[in-house]
Amino acid sequence: MRRFGARRPDDRRRPAGARKPALRTLARGLRARLVVAFLLVAALSALATAALTFREARTAILQRTQDTAVNALRGQVNSQAPDLSYPPGTAGLAKFAANLNRAGEAAQHWVVHVRYGDGPMVPSLRPGEDAAIGTGVRKKVQAGIAAVQRVETEGRPWLVIGLPVTFSNNTKPSGVEVFARVPLREDEANVQALVDAAQSGALPAVALAVVPALIAAGGVLRPVRELRRGAQRITEGALDTRLKVTGRDELAELSRTFNGMAAALEENVAELRRMEANARRFAADVSHELRTPLAAMTAVVDVLDEDAATLDPDTAHAVRLISEETGKLARMVEDLMEISRFDAGAAALHLDEVDVAETVRKTLQARNWQDEVEADLPDGVRARLDTRRIDVVVANLVGNALRHGGAPVHVAVRADRTAERLLIEVADQGPGIDPEVLPHVFDRFYKADAARVRSEGSGLGLAITLENVRLHHGTIRAANRPGGGAVFTVDLPLRTGGDEE
């Protein structure tokens, strides 16, 4: 079982070249998103303010120009209209229009045209100017109503003013109509100046918003960073990690929740460690206490087993059964002792430079498996191994394959010089391992109807095999072959770093 916070054997630092660029990571971070959101809000606020200001200012400027021009034109018309004779002739209308144009030349820059009834405009309109005085303005003036309209002619803005001239003694229309076109170039220039000023002011405002955005993002992200560091420290095994809680907002509440979780986790892990230590101590103590009576029982059973041939059949069968079960119990006690040493961290490697093929061959010969095993053991493959532990690994895998897969069992040794890896493969001819059981074959005492590796023995053989392989900084995996049968592959380094004595 992996200890809490311990580094896995295959944990490796990612090379610097494989890390994401800092700028890309920063761009995807929460800080960048908060700053961008803050700037977007600031930009939208500035744009909305500028748009509203522009609309109100433009309306005010044009309205002021319109009121000024209308009042000025009405005043000039009222002052000069009494000099007209009725019905006015073309010469009188021309003089009236000239006087009005001269009166507004300095201030308003208007262009005045007058007419009487349905007569022509005086002075005459040039081509294209007739459309400048819209029919809507003309109709209102004919009805005796003053009218104002903004138009655009040849790309230039104009204010068109239409005034009916009434007799001084009553409000009856005299039939004289005055039309003035006031250029709005200066007003448009003023409006454009407002737009430029708004743009010039908005850009610095958005730029200045970066500072409060960074400050606000830092204030929001500071508790988040503390949470990340705290979670990382807990992952590394520092279960006493606690966060400093300030304020009463949601982030402060999250920090309090984190502290409560860390306290509960520390308490639970401490309890689990205590229970695990008690379980290991219990297994070790029981195994140790059983060794002495088992040694005596084994000696007695061995004596009885030698004399079993002289006993009657029932007694001989009982003696042989007792001898077999006593042997199984002795092996189980030895396995428990071995697994207890692994749990206590007391297992040590005694490495030597050995010929791998010769080491595997001795394992097979010591158990008389030469006739049941097809061995592919190339010479010249050397590695630094603990021969006793490799003997246990090979013996457990081959014995398991013979019991549950049947002969012949294929054992192969291969060396990958490029990767500096040693592979030991044990394959059988059996039905294979149920896919649901496959992930649990190395679990201790795992029981399942389809678990072919657990039908006999102590239930610790493959678990001990796994621990011995890990002790060599290697890995072991179980799989089913496409053609049938199970295959176990041990992957070890050819050069185990350091002599662990």
Automatic annotation (TrEMBL):
InterPro entries recorded: HAMP_dom, HATPase_C_sf, HATPase_dom, His_kinase_dom, HisK_dim/P_dom, HisK_dim/P_sf, Sig_transdc_His_kin-like_C
Organism: Streptomyces mobaraensis
Lineage: Bacteria, Bacillati, Actinomycetota, Actinomycetes, Kitasatosporales
Protein name (database record): histidine kinase
CDD domains for this protein: HAMP (cd06225), HATPase (cd00075), HisKA (cd00082)
Keywords: ATP-binding, Cell membrane, Kinase, Membrane, Nucleotide-binding, Phosphoprotein, Transferase, Transmembrane, Transmembrane helix, Two-component regulatory system
Major localization class: membrane
Assigned GO CC terms: plasma membrane
Location(s) in or outside the cell: Cell membrane
Highest taxon in the source lineage: Bacteria
Residue span(s) of domain Histidine kinase: 285-496
Domain HAMP: 218-270
Catalytic activity: ATP + protein L-histidine = ADP + protein N-phospho-L-histidine
